[in-house]
């Protein structure tokens, strides 16, 4: 891969996107280490993905606070080191000039919104001389598809009719994914929002031979679940219940305080547990908004299980982290690997990237170690395709 790669964020001034840009700029200036970057590790590095300094950032957002100001706020909150925003302020200001005003579901004609998104993506690619552009959704979580939206995205014909309909029924994530595919851009759904997954949207990717990945980045509690749950299964220990409580602040917490939005997240977080254990498991999963926590989040899990002769035992753990700092290196990984997949001619959902997601598209595999093996094998095939010794599937 010889040219520069564009990364277009939906939610470009949010905490995850801002942290990602700060990190990429700092790595490019040799002011930060590459901690947390999976694509740099032995195994995934075989893919030959573009390097972080080759990435050029832009995006859409509905807020007006500038990236330098958002970076200052994140530093004050302890999300990024206090000295970094000043060290990369010129780069942040340059990226901020490439952020366009976003679209909101239910506002304005949806055909014109989709056309505008597509035009912004094409202009970004042309103006910056980019080889390709990967679109990544790191915006606020949307509710599950309504019945009207599901019907509107069931077929390409229904989708086209809905775009011209008098009542806007499509969620913004679907408009963005559809516009991205029309512009020839791969897509990453880092949130549990519908995005590229409905049939008509996925068909648009297939028609243009574009890859996409999703859904819902696996950064904290679910990451730990995907590592711990296989332990119980392979030791033949019977899990009776697995209860989870999540406390978080920030914009994500505020969004998830709405039960409709929280439905998408809780469904995504719970999706893999029964698949790993081989049976349904009792236990509530709560997400509670605590404004005082800011960008931090804490998860507490209580696991009840049976051992030999039915002996009852428990395991408890607490996970406390900064979600944006956990998500940012994964976003960089996904941008780089999806760009490499596009170059190699991959089409449709990329199940080998399930390692990064709570609800991986086109895959029922949720065990972290198995997902890692699949990722490494896929990256090796991409590398073989690049050097002519093999062909990527």
Automatic annotation (TrEMBL):
Residues 220-324 form the Myo-inositol-1-phosphate synthase GAPDH-like domain. It comes from the Bacteria. Belongs to the myo-inositol 1-phosphate synthase family. This is Inositol-3-phosphate synthase.
């Amino acid at each position: 891969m010889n040219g520069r790669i564009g990364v277009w964020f939906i939610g470009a001034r949010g905490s995850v996107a801002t942290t990602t840009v700060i990190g990429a700029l700092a790595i490019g200036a040799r002011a930060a280490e590459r901690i947390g970057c999976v694509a740099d590790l032995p195994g995934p590095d075989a893919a030959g993905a573009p390097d972080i300094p080759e990435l050029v950032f832009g995006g859409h957002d509905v807020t007006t606070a500038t990236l330098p100001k958002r970076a200052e706020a994140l530093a004050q909150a302890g999300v990024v080191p206090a000295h970094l925003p000043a060290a990369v302020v010129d780069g942040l200001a340059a990226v901020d000039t490439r952020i366009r005003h976003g679209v909101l579901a239910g506002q304005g004609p949806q055909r014109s919104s989709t056309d505008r998104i597509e035009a912004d993506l094409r202009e970004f690619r042309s103006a910056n001389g980019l080889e390709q552009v990967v679109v990544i959704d790191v915006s606020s979580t949307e509710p599950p598809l309504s019945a009207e939206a599901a019907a509107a995205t069931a077929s390409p014909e229904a989708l086209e009719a809905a775009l011209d309909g008098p009542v806007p029924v499509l969620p913004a994530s679907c408009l963005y994914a559809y516009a991205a595919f029309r512009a020839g851009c791969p897509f990453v759904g880092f949130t549990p929002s519908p995005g590229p997954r409905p049939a008509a949207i996925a068909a648009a990717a297939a028609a243009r031979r574009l890859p996409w990945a999703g859904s819902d980045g696996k950064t904290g509690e679910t990451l730990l679940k995907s590592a711990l749950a296989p332990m119980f299964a392979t030791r033949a220990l019977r899990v009776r219940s697995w209860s989870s409580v999540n406390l978080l602040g920030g914009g994500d917490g505020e969004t998830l305080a709405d039960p409709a939005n929280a439905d998408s997240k809780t469904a995504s977080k719970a999706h893999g547990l029964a698949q790993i254990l081989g049976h349904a498991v009792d236990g509530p999963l709560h997400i509670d908004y605590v404004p005082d926590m800011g960008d931090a989040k804490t998860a507490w899990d209580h696991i009840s299980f049976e051992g030999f002769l039915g002996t009852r035992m428990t395991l408890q753990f607490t996970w406390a982290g900064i979600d944006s700092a956990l998500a940012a290196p994964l976003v960089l990984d996904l941008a780089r690997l999806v760009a490499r997949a596009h170059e190699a001619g991959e089409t449709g959902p990329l199940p080998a990237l399930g390692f990064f997601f709570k609800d991986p598209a086109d895959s029922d595999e949720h065990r972290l170690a198995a997902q890692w093996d699949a990722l490494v094998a896929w990256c090796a095939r991409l590398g073989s395709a690049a050097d002519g010794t093999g062909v990527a599937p």
